[in-house]
Automatic annotation (TrEMBL):
GO BP annotations listed: methylation
Keyword Ligase found: no
Entry-linked CDD domains: AdoMet_MTases
This protein's name: tRNA N(3)-methylcytidine methyltransferase
Function text: S-adenosyl-L-methionine-dependent methyltransferase.
Source organism of this protein record: Citrus clementina
Amino acid sequence: MSVSSSAGAGEYHSKDFEWETLKQEIENDPSLQYHLLPYNSSPEAAQEAEKDSDAWKRFHSRHSSGKFFKERRYLLKEFPELVSCGGSSKLLEVGCGNGSTALPILRGNENIIVYACDCSSEILERAKEFVDAADIGSVKDRFCPFYCDFCTAGFPEWLACNSCLESFQQKQHDCFSDTEEKNKPHLKNLLRQDDCCIGGVDFITLIFTLSAVPLQRMPTAIRECYSVLKPGGLLLFRDYGLYDMTMLRFKPEQRVEFKEYMRSDGTRSYFFTIDSVRNLFVNAGFIEVELEYCCVKSVNRGKGKSMRRVWVHGKFRKPL
């Protein structure tokens, strides 16, 4: 069935078309062949990746009003574990933006604690204002935003307990960022528990975040997530899928890698296949729980346009 752009949370589940059918259509269209060609990256492209965080900071500065991103109410249906989890469960929302992911989670579970990070201090302030304005009970004690550019500096040390940092081999101490650690003593106290093992949080959400990370940094970014997740904990993933309509809008000169594009404002977007997501997470040590394409036909009734959206939905568990 088709859904409108203003559809409710319950309508985001349906698969309106098959990804393989879309793939065949795209690959048989001569006008879109440039998306399929091999791409040889240059040293300049790697240097441009270093500027990626700055581009996202400027992006958030332009869209700091909070109106650009709609509240993602559908997430509780896609990830019901966030509602059914036990009391005082801890979630790390990576790349929180203006709080559009954190807010429905805080609404749906009055006991969950949400730690939310982003590479833009300005957007973190907007996220705090956005969540505070929602007037959710005890939200000030359950929403903890902090600055972190996790794919370059790693997560701050207080997200993992001391005893397990020593046993986490292949993890160098300088991979952890001390950014704002001294300013967040209450966050340390909440997470420093004797019975915590190897990671400090029960859940991690990567919702349209990994696609903004330069391709060559993705494995390191995922290992960072693995290092702060408790054994048995879940990483919940949702991001752009290959042949999503936004990918097909990019022009040939906007390609910076195979399946990776750069917008005019300098921000990047990568488009995943199921296999590419599986390889990234399994190679980091995760166990695949769910992984599928979400193919939704969205109808913009105002403009009378039908849009085929493709996302990759996944759940990955850290072994016990």
